[in-house]
Amino acid sequence: MSTLKKPKIIFIEPKAPNLHIFSVFVIPRLGTLILGTIMQKLGWEVEVILEENEEIDFEKVNQADIVGISTITSTATRAFSIADQIRNMGIPVIMGGPHVTFLPEEALEHCDFVIRSEGEKALPIFIEHWMNGKNFDNVPNLSYRKNGHIIHNPIIELITDLDSIPYPDFALINNGIKRTFGYQIVPLQTSRGCPFDCEFCSVTGMFGRKIRYRSTENIIEELRQYDDKKNVIFFYDDNFTANRKRAKALLNAMIKEKFSFKWSTQVRADVAKDPQLVNLMHRAGCETVFIGFESLDPASLLEMKKCQSVEQIKQAIKAFNRNRIHVHGMFVFGFESDTEKKITETIKFVNHSRIGTAQFLILTPLPGTVTFNKLKAAGRIKFFDWALYDAHHAVFEPKYMTIEQLQRAQIKGHQSFYSVRQLLKRLIRFETGEFVIGVYARRLNRNWKKRNKIWMKALELLKPNFDFKINIDVRQLIKLPTQKKSNDHIQTTNNYRDKFDKFSNPNQLIKAN
Ligand code: B12
Ligand code: SF4
Questions:
Q1: d(CA 147, CA 381)
Q2: Residue 116 belongs to domain spanning
Q3: CATH number, domain at 367?
Q4: Is residue 424 included in any domain, yes or no?
């Protein structure tokens, strides 16, 4: 590594493997940006490649001293292909994010290091050890190979002082964040963790059940950096109103600042218990809430440990409508008590409700969750290609349906909620925002079906108790620069290239064995 020029780290957030309900929102997760900002402050040259925004230029990547890849489960297959390519160029790769936190050994087949859990404390320590050729025994959260064995160093306590985390520098992404429906979205997280413990959710495994907050002052200071006329804020919290007192303090401070930001966030249905809070959200500029209603079947709500009643769902819809806050209702199909009949009733209810927009997705056994452990132990997970774990593909056998029936129920939900009839209803009510999103959603559904014809065919051919494994390979060919780079910190092998070549034929879509 040259001593004259700054060392360089490139972070990559790989793109989604397929179309998904939020495909139009090209926004980054905050991990690479926060870690990039920290590295910049430590004197490194940093770039963040949001692959959804720009193609990876491997010539450029070749100039990095180390590459950090961030992945969730659905992007893991692609992340591993990219990691293989980069390691083959002789550049060390470190991975992080929820997927590799729960399955670090799988990741170490493709990269050199994994940092599990939060990266803010661990990455700088790792970098210091790596630069100085020290051993990694004392690097927290690190998984790596030593003398042919995989070592998992202990995970240290989650960050308690969230104010100590620097504001993300969005200029690290080339061309910044793309505009969506004419708006420049700014992601901002005010808390981490969630006190609930829904069985299908990986948030608590990653960020803990003890919710941690940034101070109101620290959040307001960050908000002041943005332009409230041009930017809309997406609060990335999993449960923005988990602590009602602190939520009110923040909202009052936003009102006092006279910000005219429009913003959106995720809340739970139980927020409606506090009408004053909902009204305060409206007064502070809240435009849309994303609510995990999940199911209208009390048995399913109980089973998933959502701690939420159907009555609360109905109250929440009313309360937000009363305050002119758009509700995006998130529903999940595939719980143990779900039947085709129950799902049809749910779709009917949603169609007749005042939910502005909705998503009907499929229960997905994400590694690190109770759902994954239970379904895997029961041998009911039929597909292990992570690219299918985007909640749009049915990957396990439901109890009272076939996999195909579950998949078709999901498609039917979207088709019916975004039907021409429903769109006309929006037009008549002058709900233009909902109408525009509805038109987009219709087009997305059509395109999704076109892109997933082979998948649908495969499901159709499957008999209920099939016992063979199918691997749908969605990897795309990645251009490799010819130049190789040597790096004496790290050993690389060539067999990754061979592995990639084996998979890189885009025509080789389905392999059955
Ligand atoms: C904002 C958000 C979105 C946005 C933007 C998504 C994007 N660009 O991927 C939108 C709305 C578009 C979205 C869509 C989806 N999302 Co989303 N989303 C989130 C949310 C709420 C916040 C993400 C975030 O910024 N977190 C805060 C930052 C600080 O955390 P982080 O990025 O994970 O980074 C930390 C560590 O992971 C680690 N780290 C991360 N990367 C790296 C890299 C290196 C090198 C190192 C060392 C460390 C490291 O250090 C970081 C700092 O501590 C999370 C929930 C959550 N709390 O994280 C869900 C979450 C990431 N989403 C999830 C899912 C399932 C999806 C969808 C599949 C759902 C769907 N079908 O609609 C899609 C898929 C999108 C895609 N990329 O393919 C799941 C992923 C679970 C999993 N185990 O894989 C999460 C965790 C929610 C959940 N309930 O479980 N999502
Ligand atoms: S689904 Fe929502 S309420 Fe449940 S644990 Fe996850 S973040 Fe918390």
A1: 34
A2: 8-152
A3: 3.20.20.70
A4: no
**Nearest ligand to residue 393 Cα:** 1
Q: Kindly identify the ligand whose nearest atom is closest to the C-alpha of 115.
A: 1
Residue 95 shares a structural domain with residue 48: yes
Same domain, 47 and 148: yes
Does pTM top 0.90 for this prediction? yes
Consecutive 10-residue averages of pLDDT for the chain (513 residues): 79 96 94 98 98 94 97 97 96 98 97 98 98 95 96 97 98 89 92 94 95 98 96 97 97 98 97 97 98 94 91 96 97 96 95 95 97 96 94 96 96 96 93 92 95 91 61 50 40 30 27 24
Residue that is last in its domain, among 373, 389, 419? 373
Query: Are the beta carbons of 329 and 316 closer than 8 angstroms?
Result: no
Q: Is 20 in the pocket of ligand 1 (CB under 6 A)?
A: yes
Q: Are residues 331 and 285 in the same domain?
A: yes
Atom of ligand 1 nearest to the CA of 203: 90
Taking the centre of ligand 1 as the mean of its atom positions, its distance from the CA of residue 221, in whole angstroms, is 24
| Assigned domain for 417 exists | no
For 142, list phi and psi in degrees, rounded to 5: -85, 135
DSSP conformational letter for 442: H
Whether residue 280 contacts residue 248, with contact meaning beta carbons closer than 8 Å, is answered with yes
